[in-house]
Amino acid sequence: MRQAINKVRKIIHVDMDCFYAAVEMRDNPQLRDVPIAVGGNGARSVLCTCNYKAREFGVRSAMPNSRAKALCPDLVIIDGRMSVYQQVSQQIRAIFLRYTDIIEPLSLDEAFLDVTDADFCSGSATLIAKQIRADIFRELGLTASAGIAPNKFLAKIASDENKPNGQCVIPPDQVDNFVAEMPLRKIPGIGPKTGEKLLAAGFETCADIRISSVAKLHTIVGKFANSLYMRSFGIDQRALETERVRKSLAIETTLAQDIDSIEQCRQILSNLFSKLLLRLEKHADRSIVKQTVKIKFADFQQTTVDVQSNSCREDVFIELLQRAMTRADSRKVRLIGLSLGFSNKEPNEAQSQLALF
Amino acid sequence: MKFSLNRELLLKPLLLVSGAVERKSTLPILGNILFDVSGQSLTLTATDLELEMVAYASIDNHAEDGKVTIPARKLLDICKSLPDDSMLSFESDNDVIKISTGRSKYSLSTLPATDFPNIEQWKGDVEFSLLKSELLRLIESTHFSMANQDVRYYLNGMSIETEGKEIRSVATDGHRLAICKISNQALELPSRQVIVPRKGILEIIRLLDPVDESVQVFLGSNHIRIIDTEFSFTSKLVDGRFPDYRRVLPRNGDKILNANKDELRQVLSRASILSNEKFKGVRLNFGSTELKITANNPEQEQAEEVIEINFPYDEVEIGFNVSYVLDVLNAIKETDVKFTLADANSSVVIEGGESGEALYVVMPMRL
Questions:
Q1: Regarding the domain delimited by A176-231, which CATH topology (the fold level of the hierarchy) does it fall under?
Q2: B365 reaches A (C-beta below 8 A)
Q3: ipTM higher than 0.90?
Q4: Is the minimum CB–CB distance between B27 and chain A shorter than 8 Å?
Q5: Tens-place pLDDT, residues B66-84
Q6: Superfamily for A8-169?
């Protein structure tokens, strides 16, 4: 790991413009001038992403299909081709690798790059970002936006500034001004709920946060207080996580219709369990430490129950399901999920505790 | 509902029941305490649906009977931070309760008492009374061996067994087992075995003072209840089959070591500093005249301790999770301890030098 510690860093956040939809438009020219979205086709599915044409109608990602159709009756909803997107993502990564090998992928269509020590373009991160976007457009026919800043959180915010097909630089000497005026909602980690809470407490911009204290913030946002305080000064010391170790393996399903009997839930659980086992085969080398069941009720409240476990057992999931259902309080079930937590350490075979029975 | 009472008279029962209050429940009412005023007495109830705690207070003056549920955490924090000997007045009005003392006024939102969950009615079929100090000893001698969040859910609790003149507690996490027996000539009990969940056991320890006053214990098919003049504790039982401790007791132990408990505890806790932080393994070499204890960690640092012993047998080397052995030595009250061992792969039995009330089995580690 050769990430810079004590000097000003140059971080680029590259974010593909409506990635899944853009790939579909590239591969199917007849879709280019119509509003399209990629997502499941079920009655209760939500959209993964949509193109800018669709966004003009107010369609957004994560919107339920029914609502999107109401806003934009001509919307074409396409089944996602995950394997194609994965392949394109690999090609994008190959382009990044020409410039740096310190890459933190966030998903198929976003990544952070640390170019602090890159020699290309006489060390200009702005020019490197430009060139990466040009490479992606020339070779893959897709557009990307980029944010360039001294740390991850600012780079991420910057990439959103001139979207689509644009980039934005926040040089070190402008960080202070940029951040002071920034609405808090832009900080990753502050969603609608937290934003509301902060607003209610009189915090609107980072400047408001700066004159407060971590202790005061703690009463509003809990353990996020320290990070929030640092972010309000434009500080983010986090290094890029180039090798992310999978922490869990999960599977979940939103039911076509809400259900309320434990028998129906068990049926769904059994289906999910066999799929989970299939997925687990790829991670056979990891040691399991936890099993979790997640339930989302009809009122969108969710609850999870977990137990320490070193294997993946159906009877344990059923037991957890029963415990979770005691919290149903006569609400119906909307979603059921199962997940396994993995140990972050390699098992140490040198020492092993023998069992009594 | 309208009443007033002294802060001290409220704080004690409030603290007693607060252990049962659920902190992260999706049912908001479980974060509340049920206040039931009837005549000159106040009854407080808290539950997390698995256990229920009831405590009592007498109120100084009484104006109006009633029942209401009040947010537990906030009420407790307010009471704790008021000055000693404050006189608190409570008055409920629709869905708020107003609490006032001197120039302080608080109004908390309440939830209706009719929504407060009741543990279903049940009858105890085994009933006995014993001293608080005895019950506490029974539980404290073994509770640390209970499993925590184990897949084998029946291990996440303590087995309480009655048989004739004897009451036993057994706890095991699969690596170690603890058993304590208390007998009383006055008892004549049927053979029964129940599993009390871990949270309930930890609550009982918090409730009991080591005094020679008696408490009543009731066992039903699905519940256990402990009744005292100040409180009533009820817990659901864990439905499952607890392992039979008789099958776990080793029979092949043929080497006996008697040692001073404090000396052994001191050397083990020192050596444990340099054991692997996760696995806590230490190596015990039993020689004819000395016991050598060694530990090392992944950084290759090493600890070595030697104490003199009398061990007229073949040499034995056994690895242990040092925490398991230290837990046992901390629980034993006598000055001497007795180890009975066989070989490096067999469990060891640890007992106090004299009484034999409690007995511990610890499985070795392969180091």
A1: DNA polymerase; domain 1 (1.10.150)
A2: yes
A3: no
A4: yes
A5: 999 999 999 999 999 999 9
A6: Reverse transcriptase/Diguanylate cyclase domain (3.30.70.270)
